[in-house]
Write a structure and sequence with these properties.
By secondary structure, this protein is of the alpha/beta class. 36% of the residues lie in helices and 15% in strands. β1 and β2 form a beta hairpin.
Length: 201
């Protein structure tokens, strides 16, 4: 299993931040911010994409009980359409950081870009969810909370198969859009169909 670093700046209170759902055609983008304790041991902790659903949920239970502070936030599809997905991802991260009960000294951001949050210094770390434990923890929270949301709204619109695809652009998802049109959860500014399909939005 990947050996994750616990700190970038030893002695500072660091919050790891990550998002889930940027590439989806439907649903919100979720983000999480996590401050892990100085001493903890989670051998299975890793980038959420490398873990099974079962392991992700087991780790989530441990993270929310052992983290010094954690928060999850989301930005809905209508806002994504207004401000674009990149800014919506940053906004979701800001909302998560805002909810932390402990103010971090430093932010570890998964990815290569970020909009500064207040005056808190930060580092953008490409593939950070596979490098730092706090970002990996944030990736697990963002992913599992978003997946739970998509499974819930699947019950409203089962034909789009969100229980399995979580809003991502699978062939079945795009075929459902082509056959039945869009739902209130779809992101209208995204390319919802491939080049062989057309739909009137």
């Amino acid at each position: 299993m990947n050996k994750l670093k616990k700190h970038l700046n030893k002695g500072l209170i660091e919050a790891g931040c990550d998002e889930a759902g940027r590439g989806c055609l439907a649903g919100p983008v979720f983000a999480a911010a996590v401050i892990m304790p100085e001493k903890f041991d989670l051998p299975l902790l890793d980038d959420s994409k490398k873990l099974s659903k079962k392991i992700r949920h087991e780790l989530r239970d441990v993270i929310v009980t052992t983290a010094e502070s954690w928060a999850v936030a989301c930005v809905d599809n209508r806002t994504i359409d207004k401000i674009n997905i990149l800014n919506a991802s940053f906004l979701a991260m800001h909302k998560a950081i805002e909810q932390l009960e402990i103010k971090p000294d430093f932010l570890l951001i998964d990815g290569n870009r970020f909009n500064p949050y207040k005056s808190i210094p930060y580092s953008c770390i490409i593939k950070g969810d596979g490098k730092f434990s706090s970002i990996a923890a944030a990736s697990i929270l963002a992913k599992t909370y978003r997946d739970d949301f998509m499974e819930k709204i699947h019950e409203e619109f089962p034909d789009y198969n969100w229980f399995n695809n979580k809003g991502y652009p699978t062939a079945k998802h795009r075929h459902a859009i082509f056959e039945m049109g869009i739902t209130p959860y779809h992101r209208k500014t995204f390319r919802l169909l491939n080049n062989q399909m057309r739909i009137d939005l």
